[in-house]
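Hello forum,

I keep getting stuck at the same step: I have a sequence, I want structure tokens, and every attempt I make locally crashes halfway through. Rather than fight my setup again tonight, could one of you with a working pipeline run this one for me? It's a single chain of 229 residues.
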Amino acid sequence: MISNAPRHPLAAIVLLLLAVACGAKTQKHEDTRAHENTLVRKQARAREQAAVVANIRASVPAIEAYWSDNNTYSGMSRAKLRDIDLGIADLSIVNARERTYCIEAIAGESRAFKNGPAAEIMLGSCSDPKNGKHYDTTSPEDSSSSTAPPDATTALRASLAAIEAYHMDHNTYSGMTVSKLRKIDQGFPALKIVSAKKESYCVEITVDGASSFAKSPPIDNTKQGHCPA
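Reply #2:
Ran it on my machine without issues. Output:
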């Protein structure tokens, strides 16, 4: 009988070390791939979350314009909102009552909702608002995302919901400040309130050297440049 086993103990040791090294290399490769896959999933989730929150935020000016026209949220539909703003995203109006509403937006496995005019935009669903989660723009998942920062006009339009919510609460724009508006929307941008009177205002913001301003009336009147003197 002929044995295939190495004849020298040294050869057996070398083969054992090679086997161990190959196994370690394979494990390291698998660990690296698993880490990369996890990172890709986190980045995809961060992009989805950013998208649904942005869609909800961008729809609020049209919702408040609907309220101003009808003095109620009842009867509000996506089609009617698109009559006000053609850029309204594919969101769901879960309910719309006289003085409140709940809307949702979905992208992939991510979902966001806004449960009323003065409510914060949360991750979750109108069907379970108590378990909604705060959207943290500084979380590791979001910082690893490739989503581009908003330009001046986009940032300005996103701020209009809090401004109109302030007006609904106080029946005036007078006295509003950035700190007060951030109590309504924690993500309110660092804009400049040039004027704030009972029924009119003008605010402006500069992003990467480009400036835009918004003045009311009418709602969602945004233009490039600075508030008129």
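Residues 152 and 162 are 17 Å apart (CA to CA). If your local run keeps crashing, start a new thread with the error log.
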